[in-house]
Design a protein that fits this description.
Layout: E1 7-10, H1 19-34, H2 40-46, H3 51-61, H4 68-86, H5 96-107, E2 111-115, H6 121-127, E3 136-138, H7 151-160, E4 167-171, H8 174-182, E5 186-189, H9 191-196, E6 201-202, H10 208-213
Helix pairs in contact: 1-4, 2-3
Bound molecules: 6-O-phosphono-beta-D-glucopyranose and magnesium ion.
Residues 12-13, 23, 46-51, 54, 79, 116-120, 140, 173 line the site of 6-O-phosphono-beta-D-glucopyranose (BG6).
């Protein structure tokens, strides 16, 4: 199996950098202001899914409906707060374990990609000093269906010119793991997804991946 793998596709938020916490803080701030209930449990269900689907989940948890115009306003508010938090990012936000894992995989000849539902992915990569690092970046601007639909990963494999079964996906979300399974990619779960044990592999640290694929 090891020799089959040619590329590693990384989710961004909560895998390469802890921006998942900024998503939580921004949703919480918006929800408190709008009188919507929001907690970390609800936040976990938003991992990997688009901004609109995230808001729909928050609203459905309290049996609330909102006209499209209100939804746009709430999403804009949340994204404004989120972007405010993103200004804090710098290259020091990439842990040594993550930086070493990426450089080791690159040295060993693997193609490396980002497969993220976020429309802020490129901005984040620039802020943390990885703007030009990945062979391809597929993000929320490139897709019409977010995870658990496999579109984001299939597009990454297509751009790399390889088959889905030649890819490993690294994810912190249940939706992302489901998306990878749906298109026949191997899965390495980290963070929240690893705690639920939903990946083919479930890692405490990203660097455990190196032992599996190299
Ligand atoms: C994913 C996050 O990476 O991006 C989700 O896990 C988020 O929580 C989604 O909703 C969309 O992000 P953005 O930055 O486009 O609002
Ligand atoms: Mg994530």
């Amino acid at each position: 199996m090891k020799n089959l793998i040619k590329a590693v596709i990384f989710d961004l938020d909560g895998v390469i950098v802890s921006t998942d916490e900024y998503h939580y803080l921004a949703w919480k701030r918006m929800a408190d202001e709008a009188g919507l209930y929001f907690d970390r449990d609800i936040n976990s269900a938003l991992r990997g899914v688009s901004r609109l689907e995230s808001l729909n989940i928050i609203l459905s948890r309290q049996n609330r409906h909102a006209p499209e115009a209100d939804k746009l306003r709430l999403m804009d508010k949340k994204n404004g707060y989120y972007k405010e938090y993103l200004e804090r990012l710098s290259p020091t936000f990439v842990t040594e374990d993550t930086a070493n894992t990426l450089s080791t995989l690159r040295k060993r000849g693997f193609m490396l990609a980002i497969g993220s539902s976020s429309r802020n992915a490129r901005f984040i990569l620039e802020r943390i000093g990885y703007g030009d690092f990945f062979d391809t970046v597929v993000d929320g601007n490139d897709i019409s269906r977010s995870k658990p639909d496999p579109e984001v990963y299939l597009l990454a494999a297509k751009r790399l010119g390889i088959l889905p079964e030649q890819c490993i996906v690294v994810e912190d979300s249940a939706a992302g793991i489901e998306a990878a399974f749906a298109c026949g990619m191997r899965t390495a779960a980290v963070g929240y997804a690893a705690e639920t044990g939903c990946g083919d592999w479930n890692f405490d640290k990203l660097s455990e991946l190196v032992l599996k694929v190299v």
